[in-house]
Design brief:
Layout (H helix, E strand, L loop, with lengths): L1 E2 L3 H7 L2 E2 L4 E2 L6 E2 L2 E2 L5 E4 L1 E2 L29 H15 L17 H32 L9 H24 L10 H31 L5 H30 L5 H37 L25 H12 L3 H24 L15 H12 L5 E8 L7 H18 E5 L1 H12 L4 H6 L2 H12 L11 E3 L12 E10 L5 H17 L5 E5 L3 H33 L2 H24 L6 H28 L1
Antiparallel strand pairs: 1-6, 2-3, 4-7, 5-6, 8-11, 8-12, 9-11, 10-11
Helix pairs in contact: 3-4, 4-5, 4-7, 5-6, 5-7, 6-7, 6-16, 6-18, 7-18, 9-17, 11-15, 15-16, 16-17, 16-18, 17-18
């Protein structure tokens, strides 16, 4: 709580700048203002302070710390060190009195918090991979000394790591960019690679069981060939459709999503290649060990010819469970229950698809206990009217010859700003008023003044009480000095602030309106609006269309691929139907989970297409084979 004693004096000081000697509303720097009965400010619960740093771009090195924080090139190492120290001071409350807290947000904050979060999750990832390793060992082999497949299970996981190294190396060679989301590709490849390994081993075991029941002895080479003849087709169907799905994602206009999809496609391709070569070779070696009754851990230890496995290890509980499930699905009551539940889920999914919003909320990527998350929460709480700030930039133009365009632009923006903007601070409006008041008598004189006269008056205006606040918005071809004509203007800008709207459609409408107003004036050179939030809004603007386009192309490719590789119309239709139902329910239930469509969600939806094709194609192929 910030309290003030002399209410009248305090209230007046919030309307006038002692630095720029001009009127200015300083109440926007106070949050949750408390006023007395006369309307004067007597207290506030929050305030904020802005610091502006100047980066020396000539000192930016290629190995700068900014690269580890996901920052752009417009910051040097010295600035980053200053921000780190400032952030540390602010987060330790700067020895503030009890009840007064400080929250900081600097340029590097998001990178710092993201990096810290990733390192915190490393332990969880290690535990997850350990659980996966144990699961593979349990499910791939049997519980006896000989038929356990510890070696083969390890090679199944190692096979994926080889694919990751190979695919990433290939993508780096061809010049694809690597981003934060790309780390998820490893998890996808582990899932798909282990899945393919299980399919190969299961088909091989099925053939061995058939020959064993018939009492037929067949060479290891023929057993491998028979098993791979079925498993190879199954994993080819799923792998190629997955590659096609992600390759379609690589055609998007969003660079990060395109790069992610191409990395994933190459990863799946290399995983498939290593599965049918390296892993199958390891399967042959491990099976040869079992045929010779050698120990699963110590291959040099060989058991006697009359060794027999224990009875418990020969039971396949999982296979029996799914066999019972298959039998249950044949009964009419279960069929009706499955059909009705599918219809109900799909109905909810359709409703969710209609209601789901397209919006990128970067706060979802921040831990709730982080200082940056709390800064945003408090900023929204105490400064709800604080909108989205930005600037209109003008460069490579003759400033004097464009004055009429500046006037038209300023008037056009002011005409509609009540709908889209909270604030528009145009240097031109003040400059024109300054000239008409002291130096020229009419618009004709204003727009026909000489270049020397224009530069002299521009310099005087930028050093005047009313124009001094705009001086930092100009970049000159040399140093500007008071009392001397201004050098040639290289670049200038105008400040604006969008309203704090919530709906994504309103944000896109406001951004599009301002861009159209600027484009309508046909400035020579470069003229464009830019705000930190525009990067998110532009993604929101295209992500919906891009997602629908990619999904449509992916579904068509899936339909063609399954028809060519499975060669059964009914099975292809069922796989296609499963993909459609999966998309409806995945996207629809995202709405009920409080999620929105953004770049990460779009990536995961593309992944879900690959996974659902993977599962349904396996089932369809296995069913056809059983017939």
């Amino acid at each position: 709580m910030i309290s003030f004693g002399k209410s009248k004096r305090v209230n007046s000081c919030f309307n006038y700048s002692g630095v720029f000697l001009s009127e200015r509303n300083f109440t926007k720097f106070l949050g949750d203002i408390e006023r007395n009965s006369t309307g004067h400010i007597i207290g506030a619960k929050a305030t904020f302070i802005n610091w502006f740093s100047e980066a020396n771009l000539t000192t930016v090195s290629e190995d700068s710390a900014r690269e580890n924080l996901g920052l752009d090139d417009n910051v040097d190492d010295e600035t980053l060190r200053f921000e780190a120290e400032l952030r540390t001071i602010l987060e330790n409350d700067c020895d503030l009195p009890k009840g007064l807290n400080a929250y900081g947000n600097v340029h590097r904050s998001f990178g710092d918090v993201s990096t810290q979060t990733i390192y915190k999750d490393v332990g969880k990832m290690i535990i997850g991979f350990m659980a996966l390793f144990i699961y593979v060992q349990v499910m791939m082999g049997r519980f006896n000394q000989v038929e356990q497949r510890g070696f083969l299970g390890s090679t199944a996981i190692f096979n994926v790591f080889m694919a990751i190294i190979s695919s990433w190396g290939f993508c780096f060679v061809i010049g694809l960019e690597f981003g934060p989301m790309h780390t998820l590709i490893g998890c996808i490849l582990v899932g798909l690679g282990v899945d393919n390994s299980f399919v190969i081993v299961q088909e091989f075991e099925n053939y061995q069981s058939i020959y064993k029941e018939k009492g037929i002895k067949i060479s290891l080479e023929k057993r491998i060939a028979k098993g791979l003849s079925q498993a190879g087709v199954a994993i080819t169907v799923t792998s190629m459709t997955d590659v096609m799905v992600f390759a379609i994602g690589g055609t998007t206009v969003l660079p990060s999503l395109a790069s992610y999809s191409l990395f994933a496609a190459m990863g799946i391709l290399f995983t498939y290649f290593y599965q049918i070569t390296f892993f199958v070779a390891c399967l042959a070696l491990d099976t040869k060990r079992i045929d010779e009754k050698r120990d699963g851990l110590l291959w040099c230890k060989k058991y006697s010819a009359d060794w027999k496995p224990n009875g418990c290890s020969q039971r396949n509980y999982l296979q029996n469970m799914f066999g019972s499930l298959g039998s249950a699905l044949q009964s009419k009551p279960v069929k009706v229950m499955v059909l009705m539940s599918t219809i109900a889920y799909t109905a909810f999914g359709i409703y969710g698809n209609i209601q789901i919003q397209i919006s990128f909320d970067f706060l979802k990527f921040l831990p709730e206990d982080s200082s940056l998350y709390q800064w945003h929460q408090h900023n929204h709480q105490y400064f709800p009217e604080e909108g989205y700030r930005g600037q209109i930039y003008f460069a490579e133009t003759d400033l004097k010859m464009q004055l009429m365009h500046y006037r038209n632009l300023s008037k056009a923006v002011e005409k509609s700003m009540d709908k889209y903007l909270v604030e528009f601070d145009s240097w031109y409006i003040g400059f024109e008023k300054y000239l008409l008041e002291y130096f020229v008598d009419s618009d004709k004189e204003l727009f026909s003044m000489s270049e020397e006269f224009f530069r002299e008056k521009l310099a005087r205006y930028l050093y005047s009480p009313s124009g001094g606040k705009f001086r930092h918005l100009f970049e000159f071809d040399g140093d500007i000095r008071c009392g001397q004509p201004a050098p040639r203007v290289l670049m200038n800008s105008m400040m604006f602030q969008h309203k704090n709207v919530i709906a994504t459609s309103d944000k896109i409408e406001a951004m599009t309106w301002l861009k159209n107003v600027i484009a309508h004036e046909n400035f020579t050179g470069k003229a464009f609006a830019m705000a930190p939030s525009y990067s998110r809004w532009e993604i929101d603007e295209v992500i919906g269309w891009e997602l629908h386009r990619n999904l449509l192309l992916a579904i068509v490719c899936v339909l063609i691929a399954t028809f060519v590789l499975i060669a059964d119309i009914r099975s292809c239709f069922l796989v296609f139907l499963f993909v459609i139902l999966n998309l409806i329910n995945v996207v629809g239930f995202m709405h009920f989970w409080g999620l929105t469509i953004d770049i990460v969600a779009a990536t995961n939806v593309i992944i879900s297409v690959g996974l659902c094709v993977d599962f349904s194609a396996h089932i369809a192929h296995s069913f056809l084979h059983q017939k």
